[in-house]
Amino acid sequence: MSIGLIGRKIGMTQVFNEDGTMIPVSVLEITPNTVTRVRTPERDGYTAVQLGAGEARKLTKPVLGQLKDLPRHKTLREFRFDEGQAGEYEVGQQLAVADVFAPGDIVHVTATSKGKGFAGTVKRHHFNTGPKTHGSDNYRKPGSIGPGTTPGRVYKGLRMSGHMGDARTTIKKLRVVRVDADRNLLLVMGSVPGTRGALTLVRKA
Questions:
Q1: Using alpha carbons only, what angle is made at residue 24 by residues 23 and 28, rounded to the nearest 5 degrees?
Q2: Single pTM value for the model
Q3: 138-181, pLDDT tens digit by residue?
Q4: Domain positions in the chain
Q5: How buried is 193 (Cβ within 10 angstroms: 0-12 exposed, 13-18 middle, 19+ buried)?
Q6: Rounded to an integer, what distance in angstroms lies between the CA atom of residue 18 and that of residue 104?
Q7: Phi/psi at 125 (5° precision)
Q8: What are the strands of the beta sheet with 33-39, ordered from one edge?
Q9: Which architecture does CATH list for 4-119+153-204?
Q10: Per-residue pLDDT tens for 50-89?
Q11: End-to-end Cα, the chain, rounded Å
């Protein structure tokens, strides 16, 4: 896995190519991230780089000890590597958006999707509906959820009605359209999960 950066979703807009074609883009604000820890197989059992972003007013004592002599970041996230690939990073190093991404790069964006409350199977899992006419009373019902004799119960994990959204989601292979180093902005083609202000993790595909 390659290094990524922590940012937040600003919203969506559109940009135009030189030939006049319009591209819908999501705007992500990625302030400079700080390398707060480098994980090694000898000490931690795996290879990763921990990054920090944002400013925190209050932190717990364990986190303050971990961030000793470093900025007091609000968010800490790790990006795993194959063994031996994290040697180019050191604690205290600053990573700006232009240091990692460039126009044309393909990225994966991870965030928490919008919560949509309780939803039925048609909306939540795209089940087909039943017949609408001839006295049918099974238009949006889920139908059978299992045989009665064997196993005589409902299997775990069956797709049913429930809480829709509000889950960790990754949109893969989005193209970077523009990098604004002066304003710490990253513009990627298409939509990304989450509401405005949502925490996002962006890494190269």
A1: 120
A2: 0.85
A3: 899 998 898 889 889 999 999 999 999 999 999 999 999 999 99
A4: 4-119+153-204
A5: buried
A6: 15
A7: -120, 5
A8: 75-80, 48-53, 33-39, 94-95
A9: Beta Barrel (2.40)
A10: 999 999 889 999 999 989 889 999 999 999 887 766 678 8
A11: 8
